[in-house]
Design brief:
With about 325 residues, this protein is mainly alpha-helical. It folds into 2 domains: about 10-195 and about 295-325, HUPs (Rossmann fold); about 210-295, Tyrosyl-Transfer RNA Synthetase. Helix content is about 55%, strand content about 10%. It contains 13 helices and 5 strands. The strands form 2 sheets. A 3-stranded parallel β-sheet has the order 1-2-3. A two-stranded parallel ribbon has the order 4-5. Strand 4 (about 155-160), helix 8 (about 165-180) and strand 5 form a beta-alpha-beta unit. Helix 1 (about 20-35) packs parallel to helix 3 and helix 3 (about 60-80) packs across helix 12. The site of adenosine-5'-diphosphate has 18 residues, from helix 1.
């Protein structure tokens, strides 16, 4: 395997809707922590609009692709972009290159293997059979491998749910390397979503597809206070996954929850006070985010994307040239 002197971090974000605090705590915050852990790394972060098309209408993707950029800048990515080592772009800016590589990589997997990727099963909606899945859904892991390998990534920050895709990426890279020599690094997951925020209504994970149970970064203070005060907890003296999740959120936002936890378990009525403090912490987070987001201009976004796209293209072209030379398809 070719050893990179430098770490190369690559990650993608699907532009499919407004972000909630689960996305923030499970994806954005850990990504920013990863940037801090690897101050030397070259970083490619992109809005995965082609992936978004797998299960969304083009209008939806179009509506959200710049909004996601705005969100990430408001979350503090602007500082890293200014430093010159973090490149933010839209996947389709180098669309012809990633799709080209996806075609080449498709040679190293089979229909049968693609059908076995667990995330494909999860993405199949309702009564849809695997046999009715679109080819784009089947190719999802190959396209994702291509996003990663086209920059020769060494580190990929992703959530638990994405691990099978990274496994597939490594498998494709390894098969390619076995045939053509050390072209690709074998990227490692930087496991960013060990943390799972649950819906305020209990049960499943917080998700934009169930907005009543989600606290959105765009919610106003009143809505947040209401959602938190009505959030499912547990009877005094008992623990539940919902209450555990509220404690997790609170801890992540810097609240010392030990006293609340032991008082609650001792049968004291502290849930109301705990929720009040939790709601205020979330309001501080969203308020700061919303203020910063408001000040981000369209020009700023256009500029970030233009510069990020240039860097991404240079890196992708460089890799594609190596790959095409290896496969003897260079003209
Ligand atoms: P949603 O379920 O709201 O559509 P996505 O599937 O688009 O969210 O996830 C985007 C990112 O946010 C992924 O990295 C995912 O792991 C993370 N994420 C989504 N929901 C949660 C959650 N409830 N808790 C922690 N992380 C989450
Ligand atoms: N599949 C990822 C998700 O659903 C998004 C994604 C696309 C991605 N390409 C990627 C993540 C490359 C990391 C690296 O969240």
């Amino acid at each position: 395997m070719e050893k990179s002197e430098k770490q190369i971090i690559v990650t993608g974000i699907r532009p499919t809707g407004d972000l909630h605090i689960g996305n923030y705590l499970g994806a954005v915050k850990p990504l920013i922590d990863t940037l801090e852990i690897h101050p030397e790394a070259e970083v490619y972060i992109f809005v995965a609009d082609l992936h978004g098309l797998t299960d969304n209408k083009p209008e939806t993707i179009h509506a959200y692709r710049y909004e996601v950029v705005r969100d990430y800048l408001a979350f503090g990515l602007d500082k890293y972009i200014d430093s010159g080592r973090v490149h933010l772009f839209i996947q389709s800016q180098i669309g012809e290159l990633v799709s080209y590589l996806a075609i080449l990589l498709s040679r190293y997997t089979t229909f049968n293997d693609l059908m076995r990727v667990p995330t494909l099963k999860d993405k199949l909606k309702g009564n849809q059979e695997a046999g009715q899945a679109t080819a784009l859904l089947g190719l999802y892991p190959v396209l994702m491998a291509s996003d990663i390998l086209i920059h020769n990534a060494t580190i990929v920050p992703i959530g638990h749910d994405q691990l099978p895709h990274l496994e597939k990426t490594r498998e494709l890279a390894e098969k390619f390397n076995n045939e053509f020599g050390a072209i690709f690094n074998l990227p490692q997951a930087q496991n960013i979503a060990n943390l799972r925020v649950l819906s305020m209504k209990g049960g499943s994970k917080m998700s934009k597809s169930y907005p009543e149970g989600a606290i959105f970064m765009s919610d106003n203070a009143e809505t947040i206070r209401q959602k938190v005060s009505r959030a499912e907890t547990a009877l005094e003296g008992q623990m539940s996954v919902s209450l555990e999740s509220l404690f997790t959120i609170a801890k992540e936002l810097g609240l010392d929850t030990d006293q609340f936890r032991s008082d609650h378990m001792a049968g004291k009525q502290v849930a109301g006070e705990f929720k009040k403090q939790l709601a205020e912490l979330i309001v501080i987070l969203t308020d700061e985010f919303q203020k910063k987001r408001k000040d981000i201009t369209d020009d700023q976004i256009a500029n970030v994307i233009k510069e990020g796209g240039k860097k991404a293209r240079a890196s992708a072209e460089d890799m594609m040239n190596k790959i095409k030379r290896a496969m003897k398809i260079n003209y």
